[in-house]
Specification:
Blueprint lengths: L1 E4 L4 E7 L2 H18 L5 E7 L4 H16 L7
Parallel strand pairs: 2-3
Antiparallel strand pairs: 1-3
Helix pairs in contact: 1-2
């Protein structure tokens, strides 16, 4: 689950059962996805149970679309 709220800079709070092994990679995927959507100021809370990178990207993208109201698929 991913939730996004306004923030200063990109702040990622991650709760993950695999954080010891993959925490850095998960956070990197979250930050890269948001920066790719031109979002640079956000508070992100992510709860992960070992999802693949493509799933994390999809969840972050969906949360960003909901948070901003911007339909990135329409353009």
């Amino acid at each position: 689950m991913v939730t996004i709220a306004p923030g200063k800079g990109l702040q990622v709070n991650l709760q993950s059962s695999v954080a010891a092994q993959f925490g850095r990679q998960i956070k990197a995927v979250i930050v890269e996805t948001l920066e790719g959507l031109d979002i640079h100021d956000a508070q992100v809370d992510a709860i992960d149970k070992g999802a693949l990178d493509c799933t994390i990207r999809a969840r972050v993208t969906a949360a960003a679309v909901r948070a901003t109201g911007k339909d990135i698929w329409k353009d």
